[in-house]
Each structure stands twice: as structure tokens, then as C-alpha cells.
Amino acid sequence: MRSTKLLALALLGTTFAGCTSAATKPVDPAPSAIAPKHRVVVTTDPELDDSNSLLRYLLYSTDFRTEGLVYASSQFHWKGDGTGRKFSVPNREYFKFGQKLCPCESWRWKPGERFIDDAVDVYERVYPNLRVHDASYPTPAALRSKIRWGNVEFDGDISKDTPGSDLIRDLLLDDSTEPVYLLAWGGASTIARALKSIQDRHASAADWPALRAKVSRKAILSLSGDQDDTYANYIKP
Residue 111, preceding bond cis, omega within 30 degrees? Predict the structure, then answer.
């Protein structure tokens, strides 16, 4: 028992000695390497849970380098092309339970939709307070400069380039070796179009195998399901 008490007293004395030493002679901690922030592109449709996720992402935007905030479609939300063209895909929700709601010009996409811009507007309102806690929060202007419209006209449509797919394409082709984390909270059609654009432009070049390997290494896909079949029909094969 006595030896146990002496050991406890010795440890306690060492603790207090350490506190005294630290108080009288501060020791600077060893510098540690700061890990680079991951490059992230968010593609999202206007589903309510995605809008909530976007607000949460912006609150954590100090942890990432936001390279893109991209409007995207899915089987649940698509904008239409504004020409009156009607569209449908078999076995989607508008045909389930005896419904025959489509072909239709748009599906669950309200006119004037701007949910990403709205989220950045909300971020701007609280930005001064966020900076009190962490000065590295990106400015609202910096975030707005990353907003793009992707392939939103129809479910799973990768027939043409869009500002959003161009952004992703250029990130995957740039000189950086860092990965680009491509988040598809809705469908992956904008990401698929970026990959298809790279393939269409470069597949016949002599350096295509090396370029394809580079893009495959850089593109880190995080999909919330395959909400428009573009992963199964184009990306995965």
C-alpha cells in the first residue's frame, strides 16, 4: 500500500513539475505539416435532402477546396429544354402504381429554380460570423464563381457539353496530380458527359492510354446511388 502511495505522489509531483516548467519556460510545439485540402465538385439536383446537404457542406467549406457547385438532374428532377419536347424513361416513378404522368416537358423542376444560388445567398448572410470562428471560409464571391449549370435538361442525357461538364473535364485534364472528388448527389450525367467529352476528343490520340489512366486516377466518384443510370450505362463499362 505504502509503495503504491509513493508512486502516486511521485507521479503527482512530476505532473506539477511539468506544469511549473511549462509555465516558466514555454515550449513551442513541433511544426506539423498541414495536409492539403481536397478538391471537390458538388453536383446536385433540387431534392430537399440535397439542398440541406449543400447548406451543411458550405458550413464545412473550410475543409475543402470547392472547385465546382453544379446544377444536375436525376430521374427525380429534370428541367426540360424549353422547346416543349416531351420525354420519359420506362419504369420511372411517373409510371409506377398505375400512373401515366409522362411523357412530359419537365419533371419536378420548378420554373426559375436557383437552389444552389439560394444556398450561397444564405451563406453570404452568415459569412461575417463564420469568419469570426475561422478566417479561411471562402468568400461568397469565390463560391459564386464556382457555380455552373450541368446536364439538367433530361434524365440521363449526356448528348452535349454544358458549362458544368466543361468544368469537370478541365479539372480532370489540368496539370495537377491531385484527385478531384466528384460528388453526385443527384444523377451522374454531368460527370458522365465530362468523361465522354474527354474520350471523344482524345481517344484517337497516341497518348490516349496514358491520358485515360491519368483521368481514372484523378476522378474519385462519390455517387448517391445511380439516379439516372449513367454510371451503369456509360461510366462503369
Answer: no
